[in-house]
Write a structure and sequence with these properties.
Blueprint lengths: L1 E13 L2 E3 L5 E5 H6 L7 E6 L5 E9 L6 E4 L11 E11 H6 L3 E3 L10
Parallel strand pairs: 1-8, 2-6, 3-5
Antiparallel strand pairs: 1-7, 3-6, 4-5, 4-7
Length: 116
């Protein structure tokens, strides 16, 4: 049996931009993407701590080291600049493999940068 498990999580990052006129997605600093084992176009769930909104979208690479977290297109209606969100990706694993799998968990600083 295959089950869906958390593959990675970027915990409590601040929304830096919201662009309603963009096609769609979430733009994430490439440093954060690497740390969370995310690839461009990967499906993610974005959970907004401030208002409880939960959306699914896909990842676009943001400038490395910029700290950018930008909700684009319709997703921009689900958050405002300054909101705190959690970005979660999921994977399908065999039930036995899932028991020992360890997700990539990223806890950025207040400026959306990796902690040293």
């Amino acid at each position: 049996m295959m089950i869906q498990v958390v593959k990675s999580k970027i915990h409590r990052v601040k929304v830096t931009e919201a662009d309603i006129n963009y096609v769609g997605s979430i733009t994430i600093d490439e440093d954060l993407m690497d740390a969370a084992d995310l690839i461009e176009n990967e499906k993610v769930q974005v959970v907004n701590i401030n208002n409880g909104e939960r959306i699914e979208t896909y990842v676009i690479k943001g400038k490395r080291g910029s700290g950018i977290i930008c909700l684009n297109g319709p997703a921009a209606r689900k958050a405002v600049v300054g909101d705190i969100v959690i970005v979660i990706s999921y994977g399908l694993l065999d039930k036995e493999e899932a028991k020992s799998f360890k997700p990539a968990l990223v806890f950025p600083d207040d400026n959306n940068r990796l902690r040293s």
